[in-house]
Amino acid sequence: MKKTALALSSCVLLVACESTPTIKDGKPGTWPAGLEQEEVMERMIETATPGLEHAKLADMVGDWDVAVRYRWRAHNTWQTGTGTSKIKSVLDGRYVVEEINLDTGDVPYHGFQIYGFDNIEKRYFQIWMDSLSTWPTATWGDWDAKDDKGTLVLSGRIKDIISPEGRPFRQTRRWDGKDKLITQIYDTIGGTEKLVLEMVKTRRKSQTQ
Questions:
Q1: Which of 11, 12, 52, 194 lies 20 to 30 Å from 103, alpha-carbon distance?
Q2: Domains of the chain: which residue ranges?
Q3: pLDDT in tens, 169-184
Q4: Which residues have CB under 8 Å from 187's CB, separation 6+?
Q5: Distance, CA of 163 to CA of 30 (rounded, Å)
Q6: 57-69: pLDDT as tens digits
Q7: Which residues lie below 8 Å from residue 87, measured CB to CB, with a gap of 6+?
Q8: 200 — phi, psi (to 5°)?
Q9: Taking the domain 53-207, which CATH number applies?
Q10: What is the pTM of this model?
């Protein structure tokens, strides 16, 4: 990565460097104590460079067939649907973007989500948007250390007209072989976590090896 590209996204820091090259108080938004511009730029390059965590997310890239089952509340009957998913890597491997189109027999459902790994926070994240809302949902987490099959566990708060202030929810995404992904979403209903959605993605046969 060229330093000139980073300078474009960090002009505020560069201006600060010219006026206060060594700020000692350490307050948020101030130049790091004892660091010169060159050292800060090196750290910026390091945190902006995709690594093994990003490569792990890139394993999801491809075209998928989707089978989904869902229920609005824990006591409701499961409903089913089918669809497609297209997952691609963007911004030179820094993020993975997924577009989902589902047919559930009611209104068409379209979803869009971004996966990434934050090199500063050292956490994975996901941002979700869909055709049934006008607000995003964000979750954060990591791979389950106890699961050798590889399960990404992400938690956050979901809001809707029932809970406009938000309520806890959790999602897991795990591999079943290299060509099947299983996503499960758990909502918090009446203070108890319940499975409300399960989505199984199967990689298109033309892409399997």
A1: 194
A2: 3-49, 53-207
A3: 999 999 999 999 999 9
A4: 158, 167, 169, 193, 194, 196
A5: 38
A6: 999 999 999 999 9
A7: 60, 61, 62, 63, 64, 96, 97, 98, 99
A8: -110, 120
A9: 2.40.128.20
A10: 0.80
DSSP string, the chain: --HHHHHHHTHHHHHHHHH-SS--S--TTSPPTT--HHHHHHHHHHHHS--HHHHHHHTT-EEEEEEEEE-SSTTSPPEEEEEEEEEEEETTTTEEEEEEEEE-SSS-EEEEEEEEEETTTTEEEEEEEETT-SS-EEEEEEE-TT-TT-EEEEEEEE--SS-TT-EEEEEEEEESSSSEEEEEEEEEETTEEEEEEEEEEEE-GGG--
* 201 DSSP β-pair partners: 66, 181
Going from the C-alpha of 193 to that of each of 53, 107, 189, 190, 198, the distances in angstroms are 28, 27, 6, 8, 14
| CA–CA separation, 26 and 59 (whole Å) | 40
